[in-house]
Amino acid sequence: MPYQTLDQLCETMKAELLAFTDEHPEFIRTKHARGEIVLSQGAKQDIGYFIEKGKLVSSAISEGGEIRHKEFYFPGELCILYAEWIRDLPSHFQLAVIEDAILVHVPLNLFKQQTTTELKLKLFQQQLLFKEAKEAFLLLNTVEERYRFLLEYRTDWVMKITNQDLANYLGCTAQGLSRIKNRIKKIN
Q1: What percent of the chain has pLDDT over 70?
Q2: Closest Cα to residue 168, out of 147, 149, 154?
Q3: What's the chain's Rg over C-alpha atoms?
Q4: In the chain, N or C terminus with fewer CB closer than 10 Å?
């Protein structure tokens, strides 16, 4: 499973992002409660959110009101909707707080400066590798296999994300996820 090999890259990137935010005491830090929307669907993202504490989720809301989760973001990550940022377009997704959070606001126009080119390239590299791994994860595994992977390699997801949100990400209903959990419990 490609996700397994990304842990070291992720840890290295967290350290670099933390150092970057520490170098910029002028960055605004804000507190947010669960359920707050920090970027509305259709808005343009001018700020990346470095997560000091808490969790975020990017989601799309259909015209019928159905919510589909795209990605979860954890402490030490810089939350950027890359495709829209690169193309300078309004976002197809909203960013919402799913666990009370402290966010450091990183102005994305900083990444236009020569001094941040190396960090920007590393962010793009990490994003590309994660997208490829996620694509393989979602396409090559059943929902149960995806859940078993999370149980083994991403226990923090299973422990700290609600069943509803986790099921949405895995591509099933909360009831379907409960059945999978019960089946795994019976086997073990």
Answers
A1: 95
A2: 147
A3: 17
A4: C
